[in-house]
Amino acid sequence: MSALGKPSPRQISVVVADDELPAVNELAFLLGKDSRVGEIHRASSGAQALNLVENHAVDAVFLDIHMPALSGLDIARVLGGKERPPALVFVTADEEQALAAFDLAAVDYLLKPVRPARLAESVRRICDLAAEAAAGDSDVVTVVQGSTTRIIRREDILYVQAQGDYARLHTDAASYLIRVPLAELEEQWAEAGFVRIHRSYLVSRAHIRQVRVAGGRASITVGSAELPVSRRHLPGVRSTLASSRVRPRA
Known about the structure:
This protein has seven helices and 15 strands.
């Protein structure tokens, strides 16, 4: 998940990692022809790629999957633990690892030989993400679905549903899965009017249509969905809704 702001004109900095030097040089050459790309760091091993990320401000890493010692997937798992990980683009001849790559929140998955048009699309996505991070605006969310990047306005999100380490954003039109725990969204979106009503649900106060308390049970209607309010969260929900003049209907 990312918050989008105004586009930034700055060039992006990238790492190109592949254990085959000709492949590194070819991709670096193609990236160098793109005016949106600035510094290009080259790595011929996974360890070298991680070292470059640690010592340079890097916006993205272009990774081959099959490298000795540390594979591209191994590197992605390590980088995923960083507070602000760089965007990941896998560049490989292996078509079968796409699912694993996107499960690691890859921005794109390019098959060798890389077509310039597809590489340009990857750079565009990275630039969008870099601009979002620079702006620090949390009014929109970037959702990557396979080869498609969607921009979701936070004000259109009715509620969020926990799904393990992921969260599903529900709008009137559709739902979108992002790799952010519900607890993290609860903390980040509290000031935007999102209220935790259950261990599995976070709702937008602006979209609450009805609150019901009957027979010792409480529920909230958001859009067309009626969601349960847990006993644990009910006092906090009452307090929050009272402060905003939304009264439960008995």
